[in-house]
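no rush on this but wanted to send it before i forget. theres a chain ive been looking at and ive put its sequence and its fold in token form underneath. i want to understand how the tokens follow from the sequence so walk me through it. thanks a lot i owe you, the record is right below:
>
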Amino acid sequence: MNHTYVVIMAGGVGTRFWPFSRTSYPKQFHDVLGTGRTLLQQTADRFEGICPASNIYIVTSDKYKDLCQQQLPQLTDDQVLCEPVARNTAPCVAYACYKILQQDPDANIIVAPADHIILKEEAFRDTIRTALAATEGKDVLVTLGIQPSRPDTGYGYIQYLADSTNGAGGSVKKVKTFTEKPHLELAQQFVESGEFVWNAGIFVWNAKSIRKAFEQYLPEIAEIFAEGDNVYYSDNETAFIHKAYSLCKSISIDNGIMEKADNVYVVLSDFGWSDLGTWKSLYEVSDKGENLNVIDGHILLYDTKNCIIKTPKDRLVVVNGLDGYIVAEYDNVLMICRKDEEQKVKEFVADAKERGNEFV
């Protein structure tokens, strides 16, 4: 357990969850589910019993450092890694894993986003332990795959070899292919075949294996972060990271390594997962009230169904005659949008940005 580490990626803005998710206060710092804990806090809580609190690292933007430390006060400055600019997930993973490797060459590392929902916490911990057993001392890269419940076009898909295993249990399968968000017809074929799972974007590997993978598949990034071996955990780390990020290209860990490597395995998983990327995904995981509505606020509904409505509790909101809508108000922005057209939210944000930054 003392060689197990968790890296939580908490730097995203979550544009598709606007107007709640703003540049100044992204969704991972909100109590989206009304549990009394923010998504970031829930993510950290989830690893209790998996690793000590001293082995949890957050990678976030410079501008969210204070938010992270307010919400997770148990973390030291060394455990909050600040990116000067966003460069997607590969540099984020490299920074954390190279730093941890410098402290513990035997580190076994879990990488998880800060904004996912997991409803079956114990099942999740069991799955993580299976993945850790698969990677401990072995040169493999593991990702978690969710059994699909529908042909969703918003997720990436992983095809696995059904008769394969790496000896760590029947749920650990060799990965055959990755496919980014397919169109509906292809997604339907994937689900019907029984050979595909959703890519949860949660990874497990040991520090030596991921460093080797960077050296092989992203050598420029490997070289940049290897130069920091003598400055991690020192006063010079911040200056080094500012220089490093100015040299890094923007690339995801999926595109840069996982889709290229030949030692990738997937753990078949079922723990009530949602990436909470959109309002529709929040609607799907939330408890439905009368007429299949999800409401949060001081709301009166008339002839309204299949809606998600989230508004300030100090404002009375009356809704009449809506079917299948998102109604969301936060910090002087009100958005009303059809649920099945939620992909337009990014367009709304872009247009609002032109009107003035206080809206985004």
Notes: The chain has a mean pLDDT of 92. The chain has eleven helices and 17 strands. The first helix runs from residue 39 to 45. The longest strand covers residues 196-206.
